[in-house]
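Revision sheet: structure tokens.
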Amino acid sequence: MAFRSALSVARAGVLAAADNYVAVGSETVLQDPQRYATLVRETFAPGYQTRAIREGQALRRRSSASIANYEAGGRALAVVASRRLDAYSDQVAKVTTWTAGVSWGPDRRPGQRWFFTETSQRWDGGRWRVDRLDESTRVAPAPGLVRYSDKSAVDTGTFDSELRDMTAPSYGVATP
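Predicted:
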């Protein structure tokens, strides 16, 4: 597994890198701690890696219901809905990402949670590295109602069969 980046120093490159880090990090921090640790080691700035790993461990300790869901075969996907480049130079950048976390499981009805993530990055060694990645304390907008034409659209079995092997998209990054 490698998270080598082929992304550019340009604005589009930093946005794609932020999309990757938020989506992959959001999906793996609870579901696959080893893959999360690999993401952190390979893409986060050395000075932030230990803190990011510790924050992930603390989140797992606080998320016993989600951990139990994943251990029972549940899943979650991260969907990057939108992002904004808040600050940019060819050396540092800040991005705000609006994301939905969609989860389901054997004993959990499919649901979603919307949130903002704020990512600070710096260009280092031919790639954007994460200097800081935090879920914002600001309230993120969330759709009040999700419409569907067939009741099976909200059935866990539909999620399992139709979303099997799907992961968040990554741009310019090799994923397993």
